[in-house]
Design a protein that fits this description.
The complex is a heterodimer of chains A (713) and B (297). Chain A is an alpha+beta fold and 713 residues long. Helix content of chain A is 23%, strand content 28%. Chain A contains 13 helices and 33 strands. In chain A, helix 8 crosses helix 9. Classes of the chains: A alpha+beta (713), B mainly alpha (297).
Chain lengths: 713, 297
């Protein structure tokens, strides 16, 4: 899902408390730097270098033996059911911790996917929906009808199907979603009215025409929950065979919770129709109840939806608006979306509308009155990031994009992604202080690639969509706004990268990242690990192995797996292919084994030398944790001269030698801050002379003097 | 207690000794207040880097963020210590405050002993006055907060979000008027305490009388003082931006120190100027004949 709202982002576990901004203000200079978008996407001066560190072996001791990365261990969690051909599958293989799919990654993808020439033009349409939706403004419900054309794309015959009724998560207090102590999820509240889906008909002429729903059974693993429904079929459906299901239902919307529902006359309608679970090629159904922390997984298809709305409403939806007309006091809008796997729409009488083209894409902005500043920020963010992501991850294949900024009273529907439809959010004045609106917008837009086009299992592997999206967001934010990519006060600017890195470091030892969404202790843990730490991992890979190389890796991954459903193995294979074994190993350890690293300098000695060098020195650099990144070590002499050596990071420590004409004064490991995952970068240096914190003294004394003037003379 | 000579206020630029004393007090107390936080930075490992703690001021805030995350518990504790010290020195600052006022309110040569004796004598009343001012400001602040909350919903139902917020804020800002009024009254009453050696109630009455009698002049002078002070702060900030202490060069740090201290000195002189005028206003507001009718001490 969606991006954490700015409040949630700052509210991650072990967050800096209220005084954080105060400290920033006291310490900061008055940079008055502009934060205008850079149209060329060039990285700012502190961006990671595109050059790759070439490890020059220092005199390192024997490397410490690490556990094999394949021996993954996962924390206990409520696993989704995996069923093959209607039979419950064998428990997951303990070695890998999950059921590997038969479609193993190719040995090499090759450079043909480094540009858009080989991009697939369309997805394999497995589940296509044709629906009519009549919005009942008074009763806050949607009356739906239509058909689902489903193809058995697996290699086995199927005698039952699984259908998700996500809105039933809000049917009563006993659902998996609401009985979770974290039921508030990402929306802040559980909602104050119930929501549900009532299926009136679910039949198929090919299967005899009877209402199959009479035999529907909720997943028995989760009593009381009706979000995961099994439908036995009168006969088996052969591989490759298609079936059309006729459906009719009523979706009762809750007050907005988890990005769906209504508030007053505002509607954001998502997860509103019966949605087929995804059938893997090996005949395993990926179905699961709607958990407060998890999201979705579905097949690609064609969605054709006719919305029937009150005439005075302004609507936005997934896909292109094919036509609209008015009849009998109603507004009829017809949307078509191809190669997508979900459909959502919004309707509100007070939306302001703005349209602009970016290349071949018509971008439609729906925003509340009084949000002109946010509109400008949103337009800037989209104008920068759409071409930016096009270049990095392959051309956006749709001709439309709708960006919705919900009004304040419906803020809980903000920060969410659907195919060709994203919601952003933020107060009308947010842009004065921080990049929250741009950040949410860019994050949701990045989801069009990592969720929309590369349709990973969000419930099973949330890091594959949220983690990669968070990295893409960080990448774009840094490129667009540089040092002001988080906070942009007139006298203080804060970059997003160090914030992400420190948030990531603060949760380094808490849990593994690569696990199902429902397996995290709470949403704060998921946020810190899946969002921040995954982004920091990829940020470190970019800084250590070269940003261009990582761009190539993720670009290759995003292009090759467009309209597919890859798993972690596929991502790791691409990283191994492009960045090498060491990077892939570090990535795997970081994702699956709480991989962490902390470099430190623990010894510095400088003494008069013999021979040509007037002075010599010895330095001891340590590494703790199971990640092994090559790092530079800066040796600075008293006369200011510098020497740089590279340690390949193998082993727990290394001794480096210095020889020069001036006494060795400073040693700094990773002076360019490439290893953003470093748990404690403040122990990365040692020096001979010790100084007073005179800069801090000066600044704080001044502010104390000024503040005292408010109380005294 | 002896009364200070009234009606013969001396501008601060002719009382450099008093200005110097106030400046010294502020410098020393601010140095001590900053101590706990400076210690945390010094112990954080940041000083082992070539850039030392100048990197805290670098654009992008990388080191600052690292410090805040790594030293959060220590920083929180240090912040509370500094805040406590700030309150303590704020309280004690009433002594140099009284001294300053006394020095400004008396012509001729001023002995340090006499001035200190006077200011110490006035200390309880000055502290009470400051406390009263603080309490009143807080009450008005709470009223302002309630007003904002009360206004927001009905306005939001009728106006756009930004208009509703701005109207709420604008109407709430009206509470700034009584708060400013309290601050003005406090300064005038302080002047009355020192200038006329009045008890608290008498000083308040005289301060109020002065404020009512010379309201336009008092407000104009006070606003000028506030505006110039803000101007000095902003100018200092802009100059500091040009100095770029994050580049870690000694001369930049020295220049920043000099700039900041000049700003502080300017603020003290501006405050002194305002107090000088307020002393004059208080003297002028005193009724000529019934002056002795004021409550005796």
């Amino acid at each position: 899902m969606g991006k954490l709202t700015p409040r949630e982002t700052w509210g991650l576990k072990r967050k800096p408390t209220w005084w954080f901004v105060g400290v920033l203000a006291l310490f900061s200079t008055y940079p008055l730097l502009s934060y205008s978008l850079r149209s060329n996407g060039a990285a700012p001066e502190h961006s990671p270098s595109s050059s790759k560190l070439e490890p020059l072996e220092a005199r390192a001791p024997e490397p410490k033996e690490e556990r094999a990365p394949a021996a993954r261990v996962e924390a206990p969690s409520k696993e989704p059911m995996h069923e093959a051909g209607g039979q419950t599958a064998e428990p997951s293989a303990p070695k890998l911790g999950f059921t590997p799919r038969p479609d193993a990654p190719p040995a090499a993808i090759g450079s043909s996917f480094d540009d858009d020439a080989a991009l697939p033009a369309a997805a394999d349409w497995v589940a296509s929906y044709t629906m009519n939706a009549r919005l009942d403004e008074q009763h806050k419900s949607v009356h739906g009808s239509g058909s689902i054309l489903w193809k058995n794309s697996s290699e086995v015959s199927i005698d039952k199907i699984w259908v998700h009724l996500y809105l039933n998560a809000f049917k009563h207090s006993g659902t998996v979603f609401l009985r979770s102590p974290f039921g508030a999820g990402r929306s802040g509240e559980k909602g104050s009215t119930w929501g549900s889906i009532h299926i009136q008909n679910f039949s198929s002429k090919e299967l005899g025409g009877e209402n199959l729903w009479d035999n529907a059974k909720p997943n028995p693993e989760f009593p009381g929950d009706e979000t995961d429904i099994m439908l036995p079929l009168p006969r088996a459906i052969s591989p490759g065979e298609s079936v059309r299901f006729e459906v009719q239902w009523i979706a009762q919307l809750p007050q907005i919770v988890e990005r769906t529902g209504y508030v007053g006359d505002y509607f954001f309608v998502a997860q509103w129709f019966p949605k087929l679970a995804r059938l893997e090629p090996n005949g395993v159904w990926q179905h699961f109840p709607f958990h407060a922390q998890s999201e979705f997984y579905a097949d690609f298809g064609r969605y054709e939806v006719t919305l029937d709305l009150p005439e005075h409403y302004v609507a936005g939806a997934t896909g292109e608006r094919a036509f609209e007309r008015r009849e009998a006091g109603r507004r009829i809008e017809h949307y078509v979306a191809e190669n997508v796997h979900d459909f959502a729409f919004t309707a509100w009488p007070h939306f302001q509308e703005h349209e602009a083209a970016i290349g071949a894409v018509n971008v439609r902005y729906l925003f509340p009155p009084g949000h002109n500043r946010n509109l400008a920020d949103t337009i800037s963010a989209v104008e920068f990031s759409l071409p930016f992501f096009n270049k990095l991850y392959g051309e956006y294949p749709y001709r439309t994009l709708t960006v919705v900024h919900p009004p304040r009273h419906a803020a809980n529907s903000g920060g969410m992604e659907y195919p060709t439809l994203i919601t952003t959010g933020g107060a009308w004045h947010a842009g004065l202080v921080h990049q929250g609106v741009a950040s949410v917008t860019i994050h949701e837009l990045a989801h069009q690639w990592f969720y929309g086009l590369v349709a990973t299992n969000e419930q099973r592997w949330p890091f594959l969509d949220e983690g990669l999206t968070s990295y893409a967001e960080l990448r774009a934010l840094q490129a667009a706004y540089g040092e002001s990519s988080a906070l942009k006060l007139p006298w203080a600017n804060i970059s997003r990268a160090p914030l992400t890195q420190r948030m990531a470091a603060s949760v380094a030892h808490d849990d593994i990242i690569a696990k199902p969404a429902a397996g995290f202790a709470n949403f704060s843990a998921l946020g810190g690990l899946v969002y921040a730490r995954t982004a920091a991992i990829f940020d470190t890979l970019a800084r250590v192995y070269g940003e261009a190389t990582l761009d190539e890796a993720l670009g290759r991954y995003a292009r090759y797996y467009r309209f597919k459903h890859p798993e972690p193995e596929h991502l790791l294979a691409v990283v191994r292919e492009t960045l090498g074994d060491e990077a892939a190993r570090n990535l795997e350890l970081a994702l699956f084994q709480r991989g962490s690293v902390d470099y430190s300098v623990r010894g510095l000695a400088s003494f008069r030398g013999a021979g040509k060098s007037a002075y010599q020195g010895r330095v001891f650099v340590h590494r703790s944790g199971n990640l092994e990144f090559p790092v530079e070590v800066l040796l600075q002499a008293e006369d200011g001269s510098e020497q740089r050596q590279v340690w390949n990071g193998k082993g727990p420590w290394v001794e480096l030698r210095y020889a020069g004409q001036s006494p060795l004064s400073y040693v700094v490991v990773d002076p360019d801050k490439r290893v953003g995952l470093d748990t404690n970068p403040l122990n990365n240096a040692a020096s001979r002379p010790k100084y007073e914190a005179k800069y801090t003294r000066e600044r704080l004394t001044y502010w104390a003097q000024v503040l005292l003037g408010g109380l005294g003379p | 207690m002896r009364r200070a000579a009234s009606g013969a206020a001396i501008p601060p630029w002719r009382r450099f000794g008093a200005v110097g004393l106030v400046y010294t007090y502020r410098l020393i107390s601010a140095w001590i207040i900053a101590g706990p936080l400076v210690s945390v930075v010094a112990g954080s490992g940041l000083l082992s880097f070539p850039a030392a703690d100048s990197s805290l001021f670098a654009p992008g805030g990388s080191s600052l963020v690292e410090l805040v995350f790594a030293e959060q518990p220590s920083l929180t504790a240090a912040l509370w210590q500094s805040f406590s010290l700030f309150l303590l020195f704020g309280l004690l600052s009433q002594i140099p405050h009284g001294f300053f006022l006394f020095a400004l309110g008396r012509s001729g040569r001023l002995s340090l002993r006499e001035a200190l004796s006077m200011s110490l004598g006035a200390l309880p009343r000055l502290v009470l006055l400051s406390s009263l001012s603080l309490v009143c400001s807080c009450i008005f602040g709470l009223l302002a907060r309630s007003t904002y909350r009360l206004l927001q919903s009905p306005l939001a139902a009728r106006l756009n979000e930004d208009a509703a917020d701005l109207w709420s804020l604008g109407l709430t800002a009206l509470w700034c008027l009584p708060i400013c009024w309290v601050w003005l009254l406090t300064d005038l009453s302080r002047a009355a305490v020192v200038q006329e050696s009045l008890p608290l109630s008498g000083a308040l009455r005289l301060g109020l009388h002065t404020l009512l009698k010379y309201r336009l002049k008092a407000i104009r002078l006070w606003l000028s003082y506030i505006a110039w002070s803000l101007g000095a702060l902003v100018l200092g900030g802009l100059l500091l931006d040009l100095i770029r202490v994050d580049l870690n060069q000694s001369w930049r740090l020295s220049l920043a120190w000099l700039t900041h201290q000049l700003v502080v000195l300017s603020l003290i002189l501006l405050k002194g100027t305002w107090l000088y005028f307020s002393l004059g206003l208080v003297s002028a507001a005193l009724p000529k004949a019934p002056r002795d009718a004021l409550p005796p001490e």
